[in-house]
Amino acid sequence: MRRTSFKDIRAEIERRISMRLWRPGEIIPGEEALAAEFGAARATVNRALQELARAGLVERKRKSGTRVALHPVREARFVIPLVRAEIEASGMAYAYRLISREERPVPEAVAARLGIAAGAAGLHVACLHAADGRPYQYEDRWINLDTVPAAGGERFDAVGPNEWLVANAPFSQARFGFAAAIATPVEARMLGLEPGAAVFVAERVTWLSGRSITLVRMVHPPSHTMVMDM
Fold first, then answer.
1. Homologous superfamily of the 83-220 domain (CATH)
2. What distance, in Å, lies between the first and last C-alpha atoms of the chain?
C-alpha cells in the first residue's frame, strides 16, 4: 500500500480550505488527529503544516494550535490587490456596478486557460469599478465552480468577485499577464472610450493545489498606471 506523503496531506488540507470545509479563522485538527486520519507519522503531518504555514494558508501558534488564516496568501506574501483599496488609496470615491452574472458551462477557450474540461461548471461575472464617478476598471471574470462552489451562492450585486474571492478563496499559485490592447466594443462602451481605443489589460489566473480558481481580464483606460507593492 502506498504511504501517505506530506504532499498528499498538504494537498488534502488545501482542498478542504478551498472547499470551505475548514473556514478562515477555524482551528483545524491537531497533528495527532491528522496523523491518525491519514495513517502517517506526526513528522509527516508536521512537514505538511509547516509548508502550508509558509504559504500563508494556515497560522500555527504554540499551545493554541493551527488555524486557517483569516486572509490566506501565498509564500511570497503577495496579496491579490483590491480594486476598492487602489481607488480609495488615491483619495477617490469608489463605486461598483454588476453588469452581468451567469452560471453556465465554461467555453473551450476559457477552459484551456483554466486547465479544465470544456463544459465544466462555471460562473461568468462582468462588472465595472469606478473612481470619482469615472470608469476605472472593467472586470470580466470566470470562476471555476468545481473548485469554489460557494461562489455559486453569491449574487455579487453589492460586493464584487474581486473582494469576495480574496476573502474566501485562498490560492497557492498565480499567473499574471499585462498588455496593451484594442478595446472590444463592450470594453469601449463600459469604459466610455471611442470604438477601437487602446486599453491597458491585466489578466490573472489563480490555482489552489493544482485546481484552477478563476480567470479574470481587467481592462483599464489607456491612462492607467499600475503600481504593485510586495
1. Chorismate lyase-like (3.40.1410.10)
2. 44
Residues 120, 106: contact at Cβ < 8 Å? yes
Q: What is the pTM of this model?
A: 0.73
CA distances from 91 to 69, 80, 85, 87 (A): 30, 20, 10, 7
| Phi/psi at 141 (5° precision) | -130, 140
**DSSP SS3 for 44:** helix
- The residue assigned the cell 483545524 is 28
Say if CB 145 and CB 152 are below 8 A apart: yes
Q: How far apart are CA 187 and CA 221, in angstroms?
A: 10
CB 172 within 8 A of CB 52: no
Grid coordinates of 106: 465554461
Query: Can you tell me whether residue 93 is helix, strand or coil?
Result: coil
Distance CA(59)–CA(73), nearest Å, equals 11
Domain ranges in the chain are 6-68, 83-220
DSSP state at residue 32: H
CATH number for the domain running over 6-68: 1.10.10.10
Coil, helix or strand for 184? coil
24 is written with which cell numbers? 478562515
Grouping H, G, I as helix, E, B as strand and the rest as coil, residue 215 is strand
Instruction: Render pLDDT for 101-138 as a digit per residue (tens, 0 to 9).
Output: 999 999 999 999 999 999 999 999 999 999 999 999 99
Length of the chain: 230
The residues facing 205 across adjacent strands are: 175, 215
Beta-bridge partner residues of 144: 122
